[in-house]
Design brief:
By secondary structure, this protein is mainly alpha-helical. The protein has a domain at 19-106. It is built from three helices and no strands. The protein is elongated and about 105 Å long. 10% of the residues are buried. The chain crosses the membrane at residues 55-80.
């Protein structure tokens, strides 16, 4: 009997369950790391071109550095997106909570009972 194989990759469920803030915390250093490595490879490619190494060597290093820089920028952009998403959710929840508190504070606790136990005087009647 062949066991059923889950078609999703094993880490997909784990990533889906992570909060937006956790994803942001993970993606920020990864994006920064890839961006800095890409810049280092780019300087190496420029140095190789300057000293007169074959075209293929410095061109491939330049392409590799461009890919690393773009992946790093994409990672930082996604981290920023997740961070903004978590901040917006937090502010929305906070404003909903404050609205509920204001609404509950305005609502009388028991409308049948008056405070003094007797009827309030009408503001239009005079004695």
């Amino acid at each position: 009997m062949i066991p059923a194989i889950d078609p999703k990759p094993p880490g997909k469920k784990l990533i889906k369950r992570m909060s937006a803030k956790t994803k942001s915390i993970i993606l920020t250093p990864i994006g920064l790391f890839l961006l800095s490595i890409g810049l280092a490879v780019l300087t190496e490619a420029a140095n190789q071109r300057r000293i007169g190494v074959d075209f293929q060597v410095w061109f491939l290093l330049g392409i590799y550095s461009m890919a690393l820089i773009n992946i790093g920028l994409i990672g930082l952009g996604m981290a920023l997106r997740f961070r903004i998403l978590s901040d917006v959710r937090r502010e929305t929840r906070r404003s909903i909570r404050q609205s509920e508190l204001k609404l509950n504070a305005r609502k009388p606790q028991n409308p049948r009972k008056s405070k003094g136990g007797h009827k309030a005087k009408s503001p239009t009647k005079t004695d």
